[in-house]
Amino acid sequence: MGKGFFISKTLGIVGVIVGTGVVATIIALSVVYSQEKDKIQEAVMPPTTPSTPKDPWENYRLPDSLSPVSYNITLWPRLVVNASTGLYIFTGQSAVVFQCEKDTDVIVIHCNKLNLTLLSLISRDGATAPTIKRSWLEVPTQFLVIQLNSNLMAGRQYELYTEFIGELADDLGGFYRSEYTEGTSPPVKKVVATTQMQPVDARKAFPCFDEPAMKAVFHMTLLHAHGTVALANGMNLASVNVSVSGQDVTRTSFEPTPLMSTYLLAFVVSEFGFIQSPEGEKVLIRIWARKQAIAEGQGNYALEKTGPILEFFENYYISSYPLTKSDQIALPDFSAGAMENWGLITYRETALLFNPASSSNGDKEWIATVISHELAHM
Length: 378
Ligand SMILES: *[C@@H]1O[C@H](CO)[C@@H](O)[C@H](O)[C@H]1NC(C)=O
Ligand SMILES: *[C@@H]1O[C@H](CO)[C@@H](O)[C@H](O)[C@H]1NC(C)=O
Ligand SMILES: *[C@@H]1O[C@H](CO)[C@@H](O)[C@H](O)[C@H]1NC(C)=O
Ligand SMILES: *[C@@H]1O[C@H](CO)[C@@H](O)[C@H](O)[C@H]1NC(C)=O
Hints:
About 20% of the residues lie in helices and about 40% in strands. With about 375 residues, it is of the alpha+beta class. A hairpin with a 2-residue loop joins strand 12 and strand 13 (about 245-255). The strands form five sheets. A seven-stranded mixed sheet has the order 4-7-2-1-10-13-12, with no helix packed on it. A five-stranded mixed sheet has the order 15-16-17-19-18. Pfam families: Peptidase_M1, Peptidase_M1_N.
């Protein structure tokens, strides 16, 4: 994520002095505290008994019995509010293929704030999969727990299929909703469905093994209203118009991601505009933003700088850019400065858009700094 601030040298020095004082005080106090605590413990605390082993779903960390291989995810965000419930929602289906590393009769997978409507398990190698005894959402540790009637076998692969519904809330985490208005007479409200997965939010978009080491390949498909554009980490493969549950929508599928962590996933459905690098460049570079911002040329500076910065890093790290495209998108509502999602970097508007009519040179330097930071992650 893009972090960091620029501060003056004087402020910096004062900060260091004050900081050193604070650290010294903390150390002194904690020494005194631990001495006092030991005394009290000796005096009053009974000897501690070893805690009973927890069930795997009571631990915040995933068990090491299963590891993901690939996901096939379809998500359908609704960009209009449902009149009867007053909610913006998304529906989804996901199939995760996972490898069993140690025999187990329980599947523990992250899932938060999703209502499951369908759940099934099959074996990948033709053998019959264990049947499901019961399943529930373990809310404190954010797990979907599936207890089975027999063991999953080490060395075998299985596929867990789920269908679910979630709220497309304006909470800046997971799959969420960003809003803005366009035009003046009268202003028209526009809704964007977008993502911020760091640090533990992918589990709010679909059930997943949501720890950074649990890398997998992701096949993404988005369903979206006609006239909207869908983006994800990989290049758009195909868009077709289909009818789903009686509604006409566009179905856009994306090239599979490299093996990667869940927190780097990104997908966006919007009515944004874009500008792109000239045809024939090695990597397709696109800058996405509100149509009006693109029309005013606010993405031009970012587009101009991205190619040279990528090339600089390729030489500096002696490593070529690993993807076929580089999308960068400016979101009206975004919690961090920017987030380094592989192939689809998300920014708050002030970290990507440069408005020659109102931005300062300091803003320009900040934009170059944040873009460089995020591209280095690639
Ligand atoms: C993903 O699932 C859909 C159906 O849900 C299927 O048509 C498609 O072939 C699957 N894609 C992959 C890569 O498994
Ligand atoms: C609104 O939500 C209700 C209840 O979940 C659902 O039955 C209905 O189909 C939804 N309407 C639309 C237009 O999606
Ligand atoms: C999920 O279920 C809960 C409890 O029934 C309900 O309050 C909530 O609105 C549901 N969420 C969605 C997005 O339908
Ligand atoms: C889908 O339908 C819309 C509205 O009819 C049309 O504008 C669009 O070009 C179609 N898209 C595809 C991929 O056929």
